[in-house]
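Minutes, project huddle
Topic: does the predicted pose make sense with shikimate-3-phosphate bound?
PN asked that the exact inputs be recorded in the minutes so nobody has to dig through chat later. Recorded below.
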Amino acid sequence: MIPPQEAERLRGVTVYLIGMMGSGKSTLGAELAAQLRRPFFDTDALVEQVAGCSIAQIFAEQGEAHFRELETQVLAQLSGYTRLVIATGGGIVLRPKNWSYLHHGLTVWLDVAPELIWQRLSRDPGQRPLLQTPDPQTALQRLMREREPFYAQADVRVPIHSETSLSQLVQQVWQAICARLREQPPCNP
Ligand code: S3P
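Predicted holo structure (tokens), as shared on screen:
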């Protein structure tokens, strides 16, 4: 566990996890939130709640633009709160408007090596609408290339080159957050 006095270094700041699909934002986010004793939210799960159906269904029946609209609405609502840990969908970084919300907190990019991402996603095919193409690996590479400059706007980058245990990963992310907080201590939002 992260000791409470250490966790207080974040003050009221919300942590937003960003990164490609398959980078582990939801799993890591839930554990980081538990260790920081903070509420955890996942924008994909909230979008599904609001829509009353799965993300795959939203994409198939109403299209990506509608999904992006719901995603922005959910993010806008969450950004009104403090002290949260939030896992975001991989494409949240694409809309400039979303950054106006992400900048309410501290953004952390889980920069997972492409081979690792592909290994993970190919174990679980069919879950990601944007990869439902004849050549999902090329589609993934293209998305990564296009999105990298957006992810690179994060306050904190955590490079991940190999599979590590969840507890080690939380430590790595927390150390990276602390390093950033030492450079630039947060004011209470
Ligand atoms: C998307 C990533 C997904 C989900 C949707 C679109 C993307 O979330 O929001 O399928 O554009 O990269 P994860 O990053 O949690 O897989």
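Observations noted during the meeting:
- The chain has a mean pLDDT of 95.
- The two ends are 25 Å apart (CA to CA).
No decisions taken; revisit at the next huddle.
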